Amino acid sequence: MAVRSLARSAACRLRTALALALGGLVLSPSVLEKFSAAARTYRAFDNARPVPSARASAAGRRRSPAIRPLWTNVPLPPHRPAEFAAPKEQAGEAAAVVSTPAPLGDDAETCAAVLASGNVVADREPGIQSGLCGLEHPLMLKAIILADKKHIQLEPPVAMRCRLAGVVAQWIIDDVAPAVAASGQTLAALSGVGGYECRGRNRVAGAKLSEHAIGNALDIGGLKLANGMVISVQQNDMPMLFTGIRASACARFSTVLGPGADASHKTHVHLDLQERRHGYKMCQWNIAPFEAAPDERRAAPEPAARKNRFCR
């Protein structure tokens, strides 16, 4: 009995040593039996549970809290009472409140300075507002007073913003009237004048707002002399005179558009003080003697923009 007991003890120690040497891959029969019993119990319990279908498994995965988005549990804000709700805008109401910023010089201080200069005959007018068009402090410019106190009439008088009236007056006094005098004539009036008018550019419906619509532009059809003769911008009988006038206009105004620029300016010259980035100016006015066309099918002259695009 003692020998048999010693043999079993030695066999046990040998199995333990081999299990430790092989990383625990060899287990004793008693341990294996315990694991086998537990495994059988687990399999019996697992087989007793119903196997879910593929659709149920997918639905369970979708409802699983582990993969549910975090924001699904964020509470919604309380319902706003009707009396605190913002009122709905009526049709066209939003467009009515949109306005363009007032151009430089449409203010009471500038108007007072222009009237006090003694260079203009003008009347203050009530503010003008028509949709996006308008002037807050318009001047009705009637005449320009030269250094010798002679008046150069505007035919007809036109409304414009005060800064433009001041620049136009200084241009006539310093440049235009002396240029006409140097040609042996006497300037009496500006003919075919246009000022404030609520419209799009080139009178195109729906086009970008014209500078005329904010009183920032002046149109001149011709120069009226003391003898009653009118030197038309379109029917130019004195190209040398208008060459000098164009140069001075391009130096003073932001935009100069005359015959040759496009079809909309073939009968007059357009002057404005539009504010542009980097002080950009546009000067498009073809100075050439007028030639009567044999018929209406005569080709139009080359646009002045190709020859004289910018005026510095």
Short description:
This protein is an alpha+beta fold and 312 residues long. It has helices at residues 2-21, 29-48, 54-62, 93-97, 108-116, 162-182, 239-252, and strands at 120-124, 128-130, 133-135, 139-145, 151-160, 187-191, 217-220, 222-225, 230-232, 255-257, 269-272, 282-284. The protein has a domain at 102-252.
List strands and helices in order, with pairings:
Elements: H1 2-21, H2 29-48, H3 54-62, H4 93-97, H5 108-116, E1 120-124, E2 128-130, E3 133-135, E4 139-145, E5 151-160, H6 162-182, E6 187-191, E7 217-220, E8 222-225, E9 230-232, H7 239-252, E10 255-257, E11 269-272, E12 282-284
Parallel strand pairs: 5-6, 10-12
Antiparallel strand pairs: 1-4, 2-3, 4-5, 6-8, 7-11, 8-9, 10-11
Task: Report on the architecture of this protein.
This protein is α+β, with helices and mostly antiparallel strands and 312 residues long. It has a domain at 102-252. 31% of the residues lie in helices and 17% in strands. It contains seven helices and twelve strands. The chain has helices at residues 2-21, 29-48, 54-62, 93-97, 108-116, 162-182, 239-252; strands spanning 120-124, 128-130, 133-135, 139-145, 151-160, 187-191, 217-220, 222-225, 230-232, 255-257, 269-272, 282-284. A six-stranded mixed beta sheet has the order 1-4-5-6-8-9, with helices on one face. The chain has a four-stranded mixed beta sheet with strand order 7-11-10-12, covered by helices on one side. The protein has a two-stranded antiparallel sheet with strand order 2-3. Helix 6 (162-182) runs antiparallel to helix 7 (239-252). The longest helix has 21 residues, at 162-182. It is elongated, with a radius of gyration of 46 Å.
